[in-house]
Amino acid sequence: MDIPMVSEILNLKISLGQYALIDYLGRTALQLAVLGEHYDCIQLLLEKSRMDVIEEGLLHAINTENVKICDMFLAHPVYSNPRSRLQLDFQHGFYEQEDNSSSFAPDITPVVLAAQCNNFDIVHMLIQKGFTIPTPHNYFCFCTECHNHKNFDRVVHSKSRLNAYRGLASTAYLSLSCDDPIHAAFELSRSLSKLAEREKEHKNEYRGLSEKCKNFAVDLLDQCRTHEEVMAALHGGTDTRDLMRIKMAIRYEQKKVRVRLPLGLDNLLLSNLHKTIMFFF
């Protein structure tokens, strides 16, 4: 990319939102620089771009899973200024559906997209910047916000909830955003299973996400290799030997959960474990 030419155009103070700097597919100069991995040009364009153009560019950077470019975007002052962040949140507003010219649905925020891509590095960067995925309200919630959303467009409201849960069920997001990922996976799995029965239009998707959370918890526990790791997993990281994880798995009906026991596990613990597991059958 011709950096001097780009710099000359920017010095003329031409708005990046104008037609002249959008190609026939509606892509801005910043988007094209991201897709072409032109780092110098990205840095130059970031200094002159509007907030909405920057946010769209970040989404494309996340979608391509380019960690270096994402880091360049997140270093921009717009992601450190609370007022600017609030304006960006409005950009992802529910009522922006009709006027939305983005390649992504309005409810797709950077952290939701990164979580759906399951990119640990990018999710970590976004969490460090304070990005979170709010849990959708209860399906039967009658608050003003939910009531208005359903009246405005029930289908869009339903898809927006599903997008959020896709992000929340991400392995990367569960691992990096929760102090107790296993407990969070158990809770989310049960919630998603209930939603599968209530939101019939997305029944299969919610069932799949619930299964994904179950597998996450199992896979995480299966990573235990030493006596100490097994003990920590069984007791939830506490000093109290109460087999918290197994009891929790029973309470949340997580029958897939299993723990590989080392040969050196004491007989008392093995006996307690046997009694607890009998509840599964």
Automatic annotation (TrEMBL):
GO molecular function, a single term: store-operated calcium channel activity
Taxonomic lineage: Eukaryota, Metazoa, Spiralia, Lophotrochozoa, Mollusca
Record's keyword terms, sorted: Ion channel, Ion transport, Receptor, Repeat, Transport
Superkingdom of this protein's organism: Eukaryota
Entries under Gene3D superfamilies matching the protein: Ankyrin repeat-containing domain
Entry keyword annotation includes Ion transport: yes
Native organism: Elysia marginata
Record protein name field: Short transient receptor potential channel 6
SMART domains: ANK, TRP_2
Gene Ontology cellular-component terms listed: cation channel complex; plasma membrane
Transient receptor ion channel domain boundaries: 141-203
Any one GO BP annotation for this protein: single fertilization
